[in-house]
Amino acid sequence: MNDQRWLSRNFFIFFFTWGVYLQYWSGWLSEAKGLSVQQVSLIMGFGLVARAFSTMFVFPVASKYLSDKKLTQFLVISALISAILYIPFTNFVAIFIVTMIFSLFYPSLLPAIESNASTLVQQGNVHYGKSRSYGSISFVISVFILSLIIGILGESVILWCMIGYLIIMLSLQAMPAPEVLNMKPTVEDRSQEFSMRSLWKIKGFPIVMVIIILLQGSLASYYNYSYIYLQKYLEVNTFYIGMILNVAVLFEILFFLKVDQLFSKWKTSSLLLLAGSGSTLRWVMIFAFPNVWMFILSQALHALAFAMSHYAFVQYITRNLPKQQLSNAQGLYSALATSLSAAVLTLFGGFLYDIEPGLAFLGMTVATVPAIIIILLTKKSYQY
C-alpha cells in the first residue's frame, strides 16, 4: 500500500476515536454511569496522571522491544479490552480502576501513530501535514456523527461507539504496513545511546521541549473553559457553540493541508516564534474584546496556537533525531506538553476564571510570552 495513504487512513480512524474520548468521555461517565461531577473530575484527573506515566515510560520502553506495527496492534488490543471492561460496572471504585487501565493504553496510541508518521517522513515517503489533516477532518466528523446518535439513542451509546471504532482500527492494523514499521528493534537500539536520558543531551532538544511544553500547555483554558465561557458569559445559544468551536478545527485542517508546501523549509525556531506570537495574540483578543464575533475571529489563530507548534515539534525531531529516539520524543511530548502542563495550567486558568472569565484566557500568556523570549534568546546559539 502507498505509505501516504496508509498513514492518512490510520490518522483518520484514530481521530474518530479521539473525538469520542476528548469530547464525550466525561459526559458518558456522568450520564450513562451515574457518577457525580466530583467523581468524574477525580477519575479524569487521575486518568491524566496515568496517561502521562504511560506515554513517558511504558510506551517508550515497549517501543524498544516491539516493531512499530506490533506496538500499535498491542495498544489497540489492550485499549479495546479495557473499554469492554467498562460494560458491567456502575460503581465508582470499579470504574476508577478500569479508567486507570484504559488510560495506560488508549492515549498511548497517539504518540505511537505520531512516531509512525515521523519514521515515514524520515524515509522521505510522505508529507506529514497532508496525512495529519485527515485526523482533524475525522475528528470533526466523529463529533458531529456522535452528537446525532446521542440525540437519538442517549449517552449510553458513547461507549459502544468507542468499542466499534477500536474494532475497526484493529482490523486495519491487521492489514500490511510499510516495511520500515515492521522492523523489530535490535539490541543496539536499546543501548544507552538511545535512552530517554541521552535524548536530553542532544543540542537544542531541551530548549525545543520547554518551548513546546509552554505553547501546548497554554491551550488549557481554551480546551476546558471555552464552552462555559460562550454559554454563561457571552450567553451564546447552546446550538451554536459546537459550530463556533469547530471553526478552530476547520482552520487546523486548512493548515495541515498546506503546511508542507508553505513551511517545510522554515527553521523550527521560526515556526515556534510564529506559533507563540499567534497564540499570544489569540488570548489577548479574547480578553480585550469579550464578544462572540471576536471569539470566532480568534478561532482562526488555532492554526498557529496548536497546529503550528505541533508541526514545528514533528519537524524538529524528524530532522534532528535518529529513528530510535522518535518514540522517546513523542512519549515526552504527550506526557509533558499535552498532559501535565495542560493539567497545571488548567488549575491556574480555573483560578483566574473565578475572578473574571476573560482572565482565564489572558492568563495563558504566562506561558506564551516566556516561550517567545526563550526562542529569541536561543535561536542563534542553538541553531534549531
TrEMBL record:
The chain crosses the membrane at residues 7-25, 37-59, 71-87, 134-151, 205-225, 237-257, 269-286, 292-313, 333-353, 359-378. It is found in: Cell inner membrane. It is a multi-pass membrane protein. It comes from the Bacteria. Pfam families: MFS_1_like. InterPro entries: HcaT-like, MFS_assoc_dom, MFS_trans_sf. The keyword Transport applies. Residues 6-357 form the Major facilitator superfamily associated domain. Gene3D superfamilies: MFS general substrate transporter like domains (1.20.1250.20). The keyword Plastid does not apply. Keywords: Cell inner membrane, Cell membrane, Membrane, Transmembrane, Transmembrane helix, Transport. PANTHER family: 3-PHENYLPROPIONIC ACID TRANSPORTER-RELATED, BLL5896 PROTEIN. This is MFS transporter. It comes from Ureibacillus aquaedulcis. The lineage of its organism: Bacteria, Bacillati, Bacillota, Bacilli, Bacillales.
